[in-house]
Design brief:
The complex is a heterodimer. Chain A is an alpha+beta fold. Helix content of chain A is about 50%, strand content about 15%. Chain B has one domain. In chain B, strand 24 and strand 25 form a beta hairpin. Chain B is elongated and about 125 Å long. Chain B starts with a helix and ends with a strand. Classes of the chains: A alpha+beta, B mainly beta. At the A-B interface, helix 24, helix 27, strand 14, strand 18 and helix 34 of A face helix 1, strand 1 and strand 37 of B.
């Protein structure tokens, strides 16, 4: 009896590929005897084409049928098989067989009666010389392995015959075996359906074989086998389906005894794998990871059915197929080979930053020299003091205890949220773990080179020219706001200036890689923690990025998340107080500053430029700094404005938008007085906004000069030199003695108190500071004194007085007076052992208050004067009562503190994992390979003489080929070539967002 | 002829240029608008508590009897008291104005070799439940008529303070000045005295670290610290306990006594100093020499001192206390660190109030003299601090005690002087005006109804002249603003 072949063609919305498939089917040298076409509810011309082909049977089925179910539906209309030479040929809309395919497959089955399934060599649809996939197998642990994929076919695999499994598309199977095994497992809709079937075929005692001579092209439409698209959503769906299939098969194949352990391991594994997915820069896969785990865990019926049907047909043991499995080591070896090839391709195309050869190192060195010149008076300092500088907690546990919601050991202490800045300080302090306070010295010592490197790196995003990068670094280092922040001792503002260029650096690449996106998120959190006043401007830039990001919106959406998670407790606290505006108050020790005139802000100066004092000092009164400072800064502004007229104006306008946002922030900050220290109101620092303003200005200037090509050097040097002249008094501020920062002793309390604090770390010291209005600031410091990480904006912006504060005020007021109050009891109750009266400032009223207080304390019989110290006059309270020293309440944060801490840990931890620059995962490498092949083929097919930029050409060919987005690797490949970012090509991309490259990808 | 693509390129460039210009215009307009617009500000005021200290007991120290040096030639530097001073004192409750009897104890005058009558310490405890400190007043007077000392000396019983200024005294030939330091507190006081004279700061090694034990009075001869200084100005600072300081000055003209005075503390440095009353007993005419050789030390004059380092321009306004004579006004440049005597001329006999306005903080006191058949005497009139609210005046015995009041507040004051025995006196003092009220010997008055008054009591008679100024309780008991964060 002659073999009878029933070809079953399944199609769903496949008109695009169907034409070629149908034509190929009709050109077969051995024509199938029966052709059954199944249309799964297509909405396009598929049904018409299928009917017009003239099949033996045409079945119109529902859209929700998967491949296996569609085949089953088609098999149902055939006559039951009477002998084993009746064969089923499974085809999908995108399975275009070569003319001799069926003949070759049929021969394989005819020759060997033990072979029940024969599979063709599946080739790429367009790049026909590449193998799409050829034979499948499993590792010993059950992971699916495609034996050959994405390789140029040079006949190197033609010796392959017996395999564990073959792909579903183009598979020829004996009808009797199909019936015996009941077809594909309905629990495996797309992924691993044929693998599972073939495994069962093998276990039922038959063989599975590949036929190299039979070649079928496949476009990866997702009808037979998973959709091969790299588009985000489809890709995530495929990854989830693969994991679901793997878990399902694991539960089906497992021995009954091990079933419980497998079941229990589902969720823990999902957690562990999620971390892996973050490291592999696949955050989108996490949802799939969990849904697959839950799906496998709570669909017992499907696993049970599959286990029963396997048991029914199984005649051989699992040992029978063990030789056909691929060892895990072999899989790893293959992956690393492929990955190497991919990375090689990557580096071949990507422009390098060239830090050393491009002059970055020299720029850093020059900045370091200028920094040393400015910091000469601080050389050799172990700690710094003055302005907003305070020591950090002496040990790492203390440092980190000040992060999150809980007990704030500031003054009287209260339960509340720490500023996110405390987390930044904790990270800084952990870098100098041997002596956390030294971190601030490091920041000062490295401020200049770090700022230079940051600006230099940021400039690499805009220009390829080393000289322009160096110019950007010089302009950034000499920014007046930076120098004033250094002189005033504002650690948060210094950090903002150091971090902003890196934020831009990461943000610019955020569209391209998850790693950059997560880095941008972390930097965003750090910048906003250091300067909450920048949050509105940065959020606006973020909203613009999201709006313009198009398909890559997910890479931008998450950028404010870590900042939000860190600030959440504070937001809640300030929200409960009903004072949202207080959220923008500067963290750290409040440092008062005067209101700056708007014109001064316009020049980028948050404080005075120092020229008036210098000219006064050297007696040169003829010059007016109000006149020559704007004149000297004019070239800089002119060049930045010029950029709007030159090529690259779109990018420059983005830069100017950032500059205007920064200026607006500074302007608004100038009007806000939210915090206070004693009688002195503390204005929000305008310098952070001006740092952003300066970032935009320098960016625009670099963009402008970039377009001037060889004429760029003179105006650039002129602008930089003029700026250098303007900031001379600021650079010299430490030498002139106009700077607040100076070398510290590492203490904020008299040595006598510090020694006592060694014995009793909670010893209380009442600090009395005479105020300029004649008032008195009374605060309690515990142990060795105030630290930077203790400071809280909740305290500095508090507009209410608690009962304890009122009691303290009463005590202090009476201590500073000739009073009839018995102060001993109150002093003991507050745990105060020492009283320090700090020297008064220049104010007459403060001097009067100081005198009065000193007189009263001197006359207080309960107090013993210790003497004058460098921190003021010290008295000791005689009664030593150890029980009075108030301990820190345990677990003050409660459940809210714990939950918010966990949330912050999860969000920040995820961002850190995601930002680690570890290479792409296995799946990404596979995808990159596939996409690279397609792209190459497409480029060959098109042979366009000129690339039409910014024109969307959507041909049939293009439309079905997915834009290769979604993984870090191939996205890098794609974008670097397309946009010329970092390669010196003119780029019209958006400034802060890489939205346009997305369009460009389509334009190819 | 350019083809289409060239046209398109030119058009594109032009469009880009126009867009760029628009962009520049937008940037400049935005920045320009920002500089022109006045933005609203949001300022949160710092939170503070105004703390009224719990009232404590009030203490006043009377300087004690007049002292003289070298009565015993073997002890040239030792002082011994001459006669006894008679003191008048009283106290009323701050809230109910009820009479309270002060506790009177004695201060040990350790340097008085002839300790017959030690200085008095008046202590008034806080009344139960009272939120205001009691009003305490005390003064003493003594008429001396020995070979070396003659004249009237009155003094207020003063509160001990840690920082005080005395403008007065002299260690010129024939002048004797003794610094009296009393420590009524329970804590040892370490006193530093800084003496400045007409030629600047006087280097006085013995003037620092003077120990005054609790409950003791020390007497220090100013000549030992600063010899041959015509116009000393003393800055007395104490650490630990506080001291009540006063300066006894006496002079001898030839062989007859030239007068005696106990100079109390003057107001602390300020740009506005008011001497509520200055009595001129001898008219000073236009022709009186005010400088050079012919200058008579008894010419009414003001001693001004600038503690700072910048020269001060001082406007001295002299107005008649009762409005009978025209006021005069002079402007003087006073060098810093140098005690400067500025003569007040011309003046007719009468009582005046003197106001000194300066651009730098100054201290000041005035001196006048009398020379009549009854003898010679001089008096120092110190500047004082304003009295806010009610205050008490104790009138020690002496010839024609007169209360000088000066109202430098913004509002007119209707005052009531309630004596401890007798009928109250009602008095109107317009804003900026002065008034004089004769007082009864030995009485204690409570003056109520004022808001900002400067007050001084002087005594004058035939050949006698003296005064003491009235000062409010020290700032130590006043309310204070306390910030807690």
């Amino acid at each position: 009896m002659q073999p009878r072949v029933t070809a079953i063609l399944v199609a769903r919305n496949g008109a695009k590929h169907l034409e070629r498939t149908l034509k190929a089917l009709s050109l077969q040298t051995r024509k199938p005897d029966i052709v059954i076409t199944v249309d799964c509810g297509s909405s396009d011309a598929t049904a018409k084409m299928l009917a017009a082909f003239g099949p033996t049977q045409f079945i119109a089925a529902d859209a929700d049928l998967n491949f296996g179910q569609a085949i089953t539906a088609a098999v149902r209309v055939t006559t039951p098989p009477t002998h084993d030479r009746e064969l089923l040929w499974l085809l999908a809309q995108d399975s275009a067989p070569e003319p001799n395919a069926l003949e070759a497959l049929l021969d394989a089955l005819e020759i060997a009666p033990s072979v029940a399934v024969a599979g063709p060599k599946v080739m790429e649809w367009i790049a026909g010389e590449y193998i799409h996939d050829f034979g499948e197998s499993m590792t010993p642990s059950g992971t699916t392995v495609t034996l050959v994929e994405s390789e140029l076919d040079q006949g190197q695999h033609d010796g392959l015959s017996d395999v564990l499994a073959v792909g579903a598309g183009g598979m020829l199977v004996r009808h009797t075996v199909w019936e015996q095994l009941g077809g594909f497992d309905p629990a495996l809709p797309t992924v691993d359906d044929s693998l599972d079937f073939c495994v069962r075929v093998r276990l039922a005692g038959y063989r599975v074989s590949v036929v190299p001579a039979a070649r079928v092209a496949s476009a990866g439409d997702g009808v037979a086998g998973p959709n091969q698209s790299s588009r985000g959503r489809l890709r995530r769906r495929r990854v989830r389906a693969e994991r679901s299939a793997q878990l399902h098969r694991r539960l089906v194949y497992a021995p009954a005894g091990a079933l419980v352990f497998h079941w229990l391991s589902l969720l823990p594994l999902a957690f562990v794998r999620s971390i892996g997915q973050l490291l592999r820069k696949e955050p989108g896969a996490i949802v799939g990871e969990f849904s697959a785990a839950f799906g496998a865990a709570f669909n017992g019926m499907r696993v049970g059915n599959a286990r029963r049907s396997l048991a029914k047909t199984r005649t051989l043991g699992w040992d029978a197929i063990s030789t056909l499995r691929v060892p895990s080591a072999e899989v790893r070896r293959r992956h690393s080979l492929k990955r190497e090839a991919s990375l090689f391709g990557l580096h071949g195309e990507r422009s390098e930053i060239r830090f050393f050869s491009g002059g970055g190192a020299w720029t850093m060195l020059a900045a370091a020299v200028v920094g040393v010149i400015m910091m000469v008076p601080l050389l050799g300092a172990d700690t710094l003091t003055g302005g907003g500088l305070l020591p950090l907690s002496p040990s790492l546990p203390d440092l980190w205890a000040n992060v999150g919601y809980g007990w704030r050991d500031l003054g009287l202490g209260f339960v509340g949220a720490a500023d996110p800045f405390a987390a930044v300080v904790a990270v800084l302090g952990s870098i100098a773990f041997w002596s956390p306070s030294f971190a601030l010295v490091l920041v000062y010592a490295l401020a200049f080179p770090l700022a230079a490197v940051g600006a230099w790196m940021a400039a690499t995003r805009l220009t390829d020219r080393g000289s322009l990068r160096a110019l950007a670094a010089a302009l950034w280092v000499l920014a007046p706001t930076f120098l004033i922040a250094l002189a005033d001792g504002r650690p948060a503002a210094i950090m903002v200036h150091l971090l902003l260029p890196w934020l831009f650096f990461a943000w610019f690449a955020a569209a391209r890689t998850w790693s950059a996106s997560a880095s941008a998120a972390l930097l965003f959190a750090a910048v906003v923690a250091c300067a909450p006043s920048l949050a509105p401007a940065l959020l606006l830039v973020w909203a613009l990025s999201v709006a313009l990001a198009g398909r890559r919106v997910m890479r931008f959406v998450g950028i404010p998340l870590p900042a939000f998670a860190l600030a959440l407790p504070l937001i809640v606290d300030q929200g409960l107080r009903g004072s949202w505006l207080n959220l923008v108050a500067d963290p750290g020790l409040p440092v008062p500053s005067g209101q700056a005139p708007t014109l001064q802000l316009l020049l980028g100066l948050p404080g005075t430029d120092g020229w008036a004092a210098v000219l006064d000092r050297f007696g040169a009164s003829g010059l007016d700094p109000q006149l020559f400072v704007p004149l000297l800064l004019a070239p800089l502004a002119a060049l930045a404005l010029l950029a709007l007229l030159l090529p690259g104006a779109r990018l420059a306008s983005g830069a100017w938008l950032v500059a205007l946002l920064g200026f607006g922030t500074a302007l608004a900050a100038n009007q806000l007085v939210l915090a206070s220290i004693g009688a002195e109101p503390v204005r929000v620092w305008t310098g952070s906004g001006l740092s952003l303003y300066w970032l935009g200005l320098v960016g625009a200037l670099v963009i402008g000069l970039r377009s001037l090509h060889r004429f760029a050097s003179t105006p650039g040097v002129v602008a930089a030199l003029a700026l250098a002249v303007v900031v001379l008094p600021l650079v010299a501020s430490l030498h002139l003695g106009t700077a607040a920062v100076r070398e510290g002793t590492g203490q904020t309390q008299p040595a006598f108190v510090a020694a006592e604090a060694q014995i009793d770390p909670r010893v209380g010291t009442l600090q009395l500071v005479p105020q300029a209005d004649g008032g008195l600031l009374a605060t309690i410091e515990r142990g060795v004194g105030a630290t930077l990480n203790q400071q809280s904006t909740l305290d500095s912006t508090d507009q209410t007085l608690s009962a304890r504060e009122k009691a303290l005020a009463k005590l202090a007021g009476n201590l500073a007076s000739r009073s009839g109050l018995d102060t001993s009891a109150d002093l003991a109750e507050f745990g105060i052992r020492f009283i320090v009266l700090q020297p008064a400032g220049a104010s007459v009223d403060a001097a009067d208050t100081a005198l009065r207080t000193e007189t009263a304390l001197d006359g207080n019989a309960a107090l013993a004067p210790v003497g004058d110290t460098e921190f003021g006059r010290l008295w000791q309270f005689g009664e030593t009562d150890a029980a009075a020293s108030t301990p820190i309440p345990a677990r003050a944060g409660g459940a809210f503190g714990f939950v918010t801490l966990l949330m912050a840990l999860a969000v920040v931890g995820s961002a850190v994992l995601l930002s680690l620059p570890i290479g792409a995962g296995r799946e990404a490498v596979r995808q990159a390979n596939r996409d690279a092949i397609r792209r190459a083929a497409r480029a060959n097919a098109k042979q366009k003489p000129k690339r039409a930029r910014r024109v969307k050409v959507v041909s049939d060919l293009d439309a079905d080929l997915e834009v290769p987005l979604g993984t870090d690797l191939e996205a890098d490949l794609a974008i670097d070539r397309e946009t010329g970012v970092g390669t010196g090509l003119e780029s019209d991309d958006g400034f802060d967002d890489a939205a346009d490259p997305v369009e460009d990808d389509n334009a190819r | 002829m350019p083809d289409k693509s060239q046209l398109a390129r030119i058009g594109g460039r032009a469009g880009r240029g126009v867009l760029g210009l628009v962009g520049i215009a937008v940037v400049i307009a935005t920045l320009g608008a920002a500089t022109l617009v006045t933005l609203p500000t949001l300022e949160r005021d710092p939170q503070s508590s105004e703390i009224e200290p719990l009232p404590s007991e009030q203490q006043r120290v009377c300087p004690g009897p007049l002292l003289t040096l070298a009565e015993d030639s073997t002890q040239a530097q030792a002082a011994s008291s001459v006669g006894a001073a008679s003191a008048v004192y009283g106290a009323v409750s701050g809230s109910s104005l009820e009479q309270i009897r002060p506790q009177v104890t004695e201060i040990t005058a350790v340097d008085d070799s002839n300790s017959r009558q030690p200085p008095l310490l008046l202590t008034v405890p806080v009344q139960e439940g009272s939120v205001l400190p009691p009003l305490v007043a005390g003064s003493q007077s003594q008429v001396a008529a020995t070979d070396t000392i003659g004249g009237l000396a009155v003094a207020a019983c003063a509160e001990a303070v840690s920082d005080s200024w005395i403008v007065g005294g002299s260690t010129d030939i024939g002048r004797t000045s003794l610094l009296l330091l009393s420590n009524p507190t329970t804590v040892l006081a370490t006193v530093n005295v800084t003496v400045s004279g007409e030629s600047g700061l006087v280097d006085a090694p013995g003037a620092t670290g003077i120990l005054v034990q609790p409950g003791e009075q020390r007497v220090i001869s100013l000549a030992g610290l600063a010899p041959n200084v015509k116009s000393p100005v003393l800055h007395v600072q104490s650490r630990g306990g506080q001291v009540a300081a006063s300066l006894e000055q006496s002079s001898i003209r030839g062989i007859e006594p030239g007068g005696v005075e106990i100079v109390g503390t003057t107001a602390i440095p300020a740009t506005n100093q008011i001497i509520a009353g200055v009595r001129v007993m001898t008219a000073v005419s236009e022709g009186t020499e005010t400088t050079g050789e012919g200058f008579n030390a008894d010419t009414p004059s003001v001693r001004v001192f600038v503690p700072g380092s910048v020269a001060a321009t001082v406007q001295i306004g002299v107005t008649s206390a009762d409005g009978t004579a025209e006021g005069t006004s002079t402007q003087v440049e006073v060098e810093p660190g140098i005690a400067t005597e500025i003569p007040l001329a011309p003046l007719v006999v009468g009582s005046y109030s003197v106001q000194l306005r300066s651009d730098e903080p100054i201290v000041a006191a005035a001196r006048t003299a009398t020379d009549s058949a009854g003898g010679k005497d001089f008096g120092w009139f110190s500047a004082s601090a304003p009295l806010e609210g009610s205050f008490a005046v104790a009138v020690a015995a002496g010839p024609s005690p007169t209360l000088h009041l000066r109202n430098s507040g913004a509002a007119d004051a209707s005052l009531t002087l309630t004596p401890s025995a007798g009928t109250p006196i009602d008095l109107e003092v317009d804003a900026g005006a002065s008034a004089t009220v004769p007082l009864a010997n030995g009485a204690v008055y409570v003056v109520s109804g004022g808001s900002e008054l400067w007050a001084l009591v002087d005594y004058s008679g035939d050949g006698v002249l003296s005064s003491f100024a009235l000062n409010p309780p020290g700032p130590l008991a006043s309310s204070i603003r306390v910030y807690t964060h």
